[in-house]
Amino acid sequence: MRWLIPLSAVQTLLLVMLGLHALKLDMRTDDIAQTVQTLSAQERKAAPGPETIEWPEPATAADAAFTADDIRMIIREEFEAIAAESGGAMTVRRAAQAPAQQPAAYDKTQVLMTQSAIDQDLDRYRKRGAISEIEMDQLHAKIAELPPEARRAALVSLTKAMNSGEIRGQF
């Protein structure tokens, strides 16, 4: 019982000190906030507005605008320079010289088997209600093997299932 009164006094003293430190900290944060506001106001006054920025004028009208063909030519030249530096490992074809690409030949039986596997996977994920990231990556790899029309249909089916809430996961 003798310790209770001195202990209470020490505890009260410590609480008062803590309260004073909290007030001191609050006053310091107010000072810091006010300083930041004045500095930002000064910076805004000193910073040039969009009407005071002077942009250099192009020497001629031809220098002012690049056409899409000019940009393509510059990019093509840069790719050719990179290909030359890498020992010709990378080939660059000009758009005018590029042969028309033939659509890839798909084996119909393989396409049907892949579509069937994708449908089974989608049914399994619907029953479970969720799909993991690894399973989603595997499903995307299977869908990528399909021809464009079938790929689009499989992605539509997957998107509808995810949007309706049948399958939870990240696309």
Which short descriptors sum up this protein?
0% strand; 6 helices; 171 residues
Walk me through this protein's architecture.
This protein has 171 residues and is mostly helical. It has a domain at 108-164. Helices cover 67% and strands 0% of the residues. It contains 6 helices and no strands. It has helices at 4-46, 61-64, 68-85, 108-128, 133-144, 148-164. Helix 4 runs parallel beside helix 6 (148-164). It is flat and about 95 Å long. The model has no long low-confidence stretch (mean pLDDT 80).
Give the amount of beta strand, in percent.
under 5%
Q: Low-confidence runs (pLDDT<50, min 5 residues)?
A: none
Mean pLDDT: 80
Helix content: 55-70%
Terminal-residue CA separation: 68 Å
What sequence of helices (H) and strands (E) makes up the elements?
HHHHHH
**Main structural class:** mainly alpha
Please state the overall shape, judged from the principal axes of the Cα atoms: flat
Compute the number of helices.
Answer: 6
Profile the largest sheet. none
Query: How many strand units?
Result: 0
Radius of gyration: 35 Å
